[in-house]
Amino acid sequence: MTATTDAVPTVTDATFAAEVLAGELPVLVDFTASWCPPCRMIAPVLEEIAVEEAHRLRIVQLDVDTNPATQAAYGVMSMPTLLLFRNGEPVKVMVGARPKRRLLQELADVL
């Protein structure tokens, strides 16, 4: 799996509801896997955004290989999938790695 940092903590099937659905800030969940090259490409981008936007966005990652229930619950089939939650509801889905500027543009309307 990609290295977890303080900026982008890992959530699990067991902690997903408390960490994501009950979050006060919007939460961007990075559905990732250790065997996924695009996941490794986007990880540093997500870390930068997590630090820069910490006042208005929380970013977490979930390893799909060890947390199949959450992956199945949201129909995640491709890695990386970025799913943005606000008030416990998924409000935006983005599939695949992308550069930081594009990701920030895609998030602008929901932040």
Description:
With 111 residues, this protein is α+β, with helices and mostly antiparallel strands. It has a single domain (15-109), classed as 3-Layer(aba) Sandwich (Glutaredoxin). Helices cover 33% and strands 23% of the residues. It has 4 helices and 4 strands. Disulfide bonds join 36-39. The record marks 37-38 as: Contributes to redox potential value.
What would the CATH topology be?
Answer: Glutaredoxin
Count of individual domains: 1
Give me the count of strands: 4
Residue-averaged pLDDT, rounded?
A: 94
Taking pLDDT < 50 over at least 5 consecutive residues as the criterion, the unreliable ranges are none
Q: How much strand content do the residues show?
A: 15-25%
Could you say what the CATH architecture is? 3-Layer(aba) Sandwich
Count of helix runs: 4
CATH superfamily: Glutaredoxin
Radius of gyration: 12 Å
For the biggest β-sheet, the strand order reads: 2-1-3-4
